[in-house]
Structure formats: structure tokens, C-alpha cells
Predict the 3D structure of the following.
Amino acid sequence: MNGERVLVTGAGGFIGPHVVAALKASGYRVRVTRRSAGPGPDGIEAVVTGDLTSPIDWSRALDDVQHVVHLAGLAHAGPGLDEALYRRINTDATLELATAAYRAGIARFVHISSIKAQSGAFDGPPLRESDTPAPDDAYGRSKLAAEQGLAGLDLDWVSLRPVLVYGPGVKANMAALLRLASLPVPLPLGALTAPRSLLAVENLAEAVLFSLLPGCPVRRAFIVADPEPISVAGILTALRAGLGRGPGLVPVPAGLLRLAARLAGREDAFVKLSGSLVATPEGLVRAGWRPPVETKVALARLAASSGAG
């Protein structure tokens, strides 16, 4: 690496600060993009590029850059958003940046995609990179289209398809589980034992670092997940361990919980919570990626640092 400069887009989101910190710790010089003027991260060069909803002149941002890590995009926000907006931000803007990066002579373009580009299925067999991608929503289709566009460029690219990422600052479903774990009462979720894949943000950052190495295979997509899946009951047990508590889980049958969720108008959320979604990171592991933290350890650390309880 020897002081190589990396341009990071989307550094202000949940994942970005962790990736920027990992790059700095590994000796890279980091430049981040911003949508508008303002102070950037401490000690980090920032350049204003504007919003991805419109074409951007990337020349200044890419000046003297050896690698690009493209984190920016429209997050998975569920139904209701215009598919054209997903396409504009997650597909077209990605390929515009990649094309500019190729013209600037960058060495590696790392694209943060999503497991949703592989599949949106729950309760199916483990997802593998060898499976034909079958995204089932606009978000997943836009991420897959970006990967397909990258394949048409004469550029050394790597696309990472992370599963649900957790770590300090996490929101949505994992934040909800953390709030549940912090409650000083038994929880009726001990029977939710279906396996599901998670990804510690530290492990994702390590995957990004690995993707920048000369030995990483290029021009392909990789699933990124912690190697061992874990159940909802296991997640809560690990979180409560980080809070210095026992599991406190009661094995109420999943059918009864689903009925209660249906009556409360929350059945879809319960299915996503209780279902199985396992993805296998065999490609990255075979290539040499070694995630630095185990799932249970990372979950306990997340709870301990959250101030919950």
C-alpha cells in the first residue's frame, strides 16, 4: 500500500467511518467525497462532488488516486420508492464513477453491492456466488445492474455483496434487537433458532482491505458474511452476554408468535426476523480473506459499547 491514496464515497454513512478508519490504520491515504461543503472527518481530505442524482465531474476527486471504494448509494428502503431512482443512484452513478476511474488509471475499484443483488429469498438453501442471481426488488436489481455494467468495463473491479451488517451505530432491525436485549425481562424468543448470516462491520472493513490487495481475484462479485450463521436466539444471547446478563429467553412456539404478530399487523416483520437467510462467503475465504472477529464476540462488544441496559 505504501501511502497509496484511496477515494471513498459514502463515508458519512454507518459503514463509511469504519472503512475509513481501517484504511488509515493500514497505511492508506484517504480522500472522501461530500455532497456539500462542510467539515470532513478529522484528519481526512474531503472533496465536494455533489449529489449522485445528477452526473458528476469526478476529475478533481480522482486526481492522484490509486483506488476507489464506492460505498455511496440509495439504501434499501423497502417498497414505495421509484425504481428509476434506484437505477439512477445505484447503477448509473456507479458506472459513471467507474468509467471516470478507468480513464484516470486507477488500479482497483471496489463496489459495495448487497446480498439483495444475489437474492431476496428467505428460508431457502444457503446462497452461493455460483447461484444465478435472482433479486426480487428494485434495490437488488439496481445493485446487480451495476455489477453487470462493471463487467463491461476494462477495469479491475471487485463487488462485495454484504449480508446484514452490524456494529456501533447500527440502526433498523439490529438496533431493535439490541433494544430488546437491553430489557430487564425474559423474552419469548428462545424458539427462534433458524440460522441467519450476519456481518460484523469490522469483518466488512477487512474485506474491503483484502479487495485492494494485488492478490485478490478481480472482475467478480463476492458474498461477504461472517463464516458461521447465528439464530435470533443466539444473537440475543450474545448481546445479553455483552451486557453482563444471562440469555433470559423463553421458548414460546414460533407459530404462536407469528399469530400474535399477525394480529398486531406485524407479520411481515416477524417473518423477516424469524426466517432463515444464510449466505456462504466461500469465494472470499478461498481467496484468503480472514475475518478478524467472531460473530458472538462482535455482538457482545456491540452491546457493551452501546450504553444499553
Q: What stands out?
A: The longest helix spans residues 83-104.
